[in-house]
Each structure stands twice: as structure tokens, then as C-alpha cells.
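Sequence only, no structure available. Ideas?
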Amino acid sequence: MTTSTHDRWLAAAAALAALLAIASAPWALNEPLLNFVFKPLATLAIIAYAWSRGAGMAAERRWVLIGLVCSLAGDVALMWPQQGFVPGLVSFLLAHLAYLVAFTRAQRLAARPGWFAAYAVLAALILWQLWPGVPGVLRLPVLAYVACLGAMAAQAAVVWRGGSARGGLLAIGGALFMTSDALLATNKFAGPLPLASLWILASYWAAQWCIASWLAPRKALRD
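Reply:
I predicted one. C-alpha cells follow.
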């Protein structure tokens, strides 16, 4: 199987699983079982895609895969929005730290401080909007999470501006992850958003695919 065919099959599998997971929402098919089945499958398809990539990027590949596995754990935890929120928060915090380590294999941490300053301002604005609705017991974990998320997205932009191959996709992935989590937090702490699962999950899986696509195709799969 050629690289392009392999990638197309995995892209189709991830997209189909994502669509079915999103369609499980009450505003669509209202079938919770679809979410339980296809939400993990969408992320597993992206893990399979990342697994097949990483030529000359052994360290980056390892840490991206760790981040994706942590994300899968977070996906499963958040199937129970109340009981699973804190485990999900921790899982995704670990995912962002793993991505941050992966990105620093390509460029020194905060090598372009302007991007960290820009994302710090954006993170502060998001927290300012959400802070009144965040319960006291969750304020410190949420603060730590947003700091890690912002650092991950900023470092993705640093890698892009450093001239990394496919760095543009990585920067888009970081920005989409920030968007997805901001929407999720707004929906949870500030009030329900229309079609929330559509916007949150679509931007989330697009972010993960972009991050996985940063890894170079394996030489063993010939175009």
C-alpha cells in the first residue's frame, strides 16, 4: 500500500468515526451508544496514522504518540462529563505536556518569545471570561491546564516559524486545540453553546490530525 493510499484510508476512517460520534448528540441522532463506540475509534484512527509516520523523527514520534494515547484516555473519561471531568482534565494536561516535549525536539522551548506572549494574552482573556463560572476546587487545575495548553500551542507556532517541514500544519493544530478547549470550557463554565459537540469535537480531531501530520511519512511506504 502506498503512503497516500494508506493515509486516505485512515483519514476516511477517522472522519467517519468522528461524524458518527458527533451525530450521537441529543440535537442529532440522540444515540449515546454511537459516542461510546466511535469517539475512541476516531482517536485510535489518528493514533494509527501517527504510528505509520515519523521518518527521521524518532523522539518527536514517541512523544506525539504518548500525547495521543493520553488524549484517548481523556476521550474515554469525558464520556462521563461530571465524574470524568477531572480525570479527563489530567489526561489532556499530560497530552499537552507530551506534545510540548515533542515540539521542543525540533525547536528550543520559547525560542521565539513573541508567540508565547501572544498565547499568554489569549489564555488570560479566556480565563478572564470563564473564571466566575469555575468552581473554587477546580480553579487551580484549570489554571495549570490552560498554562500547559497555551505553552503547547505557542511552541507549535515556534516550530513553524523555525522553518520545520509541515510546521504550518503543526501551528494550525495547536491553534485548533486551543479553540476546541476554549469552546468546551465555555460550554461547561459559562453556559451551553448551540451545537456544542459539533464545534468542540470537529476542531479537536482536526487539531489531532494536524499534529500527527507534522510527523514525516515513513520511507517504507513509497508514494
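The mean pLDDT is 95.
Hope that gets you unstuck.
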